[in-house]
Design goal:
With 300 residues, this protein is mostly helical. It has helices at 10-17, 23-35, 44-69, 71-77, 82-85, 92-108, 112-130, 140-163, 171-190, 196-202, 207-211, 213-237, 241-263, 265-297. The protein has one domain (10-297). Helix 2 (23-35) packs across helix 8, helix 3 (44-69) runs antiparallel to helix 6 (92-108) and helix 6 packs antiparallel against helix 7.
C-alpha cells in the first residue's frame, strides 16, 4: 500500500503556479515600459526585473493563493487540480502562497519605492480577491475588477513609472492603462464560464451565475469592445491615424470569435480566450508604441 504523500512533486508546484497565466501582466509591464518613451536598451535590467516580478512572482503567487482558497470549488469543477487531487498535500498550497508573496515583495525592493509600492498593492489585491473575509471573487463585478486592474492597469503604470525613475506617468499612459483594465474585466469573465456549476453550489456570484450565461456573454463582449473603441478614438485624436487603424483592425478581427461566443458561451469561452485575447493584447502594444512615438516627438 502506498504511503500518503507528505510533500508535493515539483510538477505539482509548477501546475499550482500556472506559468501560462504569467503572460498578461508581463506583457502589460512591457507595454508600460514602451509607452514611457525611455530607451529600452539602456534600461534593460529594469525591464527584466519587472517582467520577473509581474509574472513568475506576483502572478504566480496570486495563482497559488487562489487555488488554496478555491480548493473546495475546484473539487467540484476541476478535481484534477493539485490541491483537490491530493498531489499538493496538507497545507503546502497555503505555504507556497505565503512564500511566493514574500518573495515578490523582496524582489520588488530591487525596483525602488514605486516598484515596491505597486507590488505590495498587487499582492494585497490577490489576497483580497481570494481570501476571506473580503474574498472579492464572491461577486464577479468586484473580483474581476480587482484582477483586471492588477493584471493590466497596475502592471502598465508600474512599467512606465519604473522606466521614468519613479515619476508619475503622463495622462495618456494612465488613460490607456485604465481603458485596457476595463476591457480586461470582460476577459476575466471568460474564465468563469467553465465553473458555473461549482460556483452556484459554493455561493460564488460570478457574472455567469448572476446574469445567466447568455447575458453574461453579451456583457463580457461589450466590456471588452467598448474600451478598445475608445482607444481607437483617442489614438486618432492624438494624431496617430495608423496606430488607430491598426487597433481598429485588431478589434474587427475579434468580431467573429465574439459572435460565436455569444451564441454558445460555455462552449466557446475558451476559444475566445485563446484566440481573441492575443488580438486584444496586441492592440495594447500598438497603443504603447503610439504613445512612445508621441514622447519621442516631444509632443507631450
Amino acid at each position: 500500500m502506498d504511503l500518503p504523500r507528505t510533500r508535493p512533486e515539483l510538477s505539482a508546484v509548477a501546475e499550482l503556479l500556472k506559468p501560462i497565466t504569467w503572460f498578461p501582466p508581463m506583457w502589460a509591464f512591457a507595454c508600460g515600459a514602451v509607452a514611457s518613451g525611455q530607451s529600452l536598451g539602456e534600461h534593460w535590467w529594469l525591464l527584466a526585473l519587472g517582467r520577473v516580478l509581474t509574472g513568475p512572482l506576483v502572478c504566480a503567487s496570486s495563482q497559488a493563493v487562489n487555488d488554496w482558497f478555491d480548493r473546495h470549488v475546484d473539487a467540484i469543477n476541476e478535481p484534477q487540480r493539485p490541491i483537490p487531487s491530493g498531489r499538493m498535500p496538507g497545507r503546502w498550497g497555503l505555504g507556497i502562497a505565503v512564500l511566493w508573496s514574500g518573495l515578490s515583495l523582496a524582489w520588488a525592493v530591487l525596483m525602488g519605492p514605486w516598484g515596491f509600492a505597486a507590488c505590495a498593492l498587487a499582492v494585497l489585491l490577490s489576497w483580497a480577491y481570494s481570501a476571506p473575509p473580503l474574498r472579492l471573487k464572491r461577486n464577479g463585478w468586484w473580483g474581476n475588477a480587482a484582477c483586471a486592474l492588477s493584471y493590466e492597469g497596475l502592471a502598465w503604470i508600474t512599467g512606465t513609472a519604473v522606466m521614468l525613475g519613479g515619476a508619475w506617468p503622463g495622462a495618456g499612459s494612465l488613460v490607456l492603462a485604465l481603458l485596457y483594465s476595463l476591457g480586461a474585466h470582460g476577459i476575466m469573465t471568460l474564465n468563469d464560464f467553465k465553473s458555473i456549476e461549482g460556483d452556484q453550489r459554493m455561493g460564488v456570484a460570478s457574472l455567469p451565475v448572476q446574469l445567466g450565461a447568455p447575458r453574461a456573454a453579451r456583457t463580457a463582449v461589450a466590456v471588452m469592445v467598448l474600451p478598445q473603441l475608445a482607444v481607437v478614438l483617442l489614438l486618432w485624436a492624438w494624431g496617430l491615424p495608423w496606430h488607430a487603424a491598426a487597433v481598429g483592425v485588431l478589434v474587427l478581427a475579434q468580431g467573429p470569435l465574439m459572435r460565436r461566443f455569444v451564441h454558445a458561451p460555455v462552449e466557446k469561452a475558451l476559444a475566445l480566450s485563446a484566440f481573441g485575447v492575443p488580438l486584444y493584447v496586441s492592440g495594447m502594444m500598438v497603443s504603447a508604441f503610439g504613445l512612445r512615438q508621441i514622447q519621442l516627438m516631444g509632443v507631450t
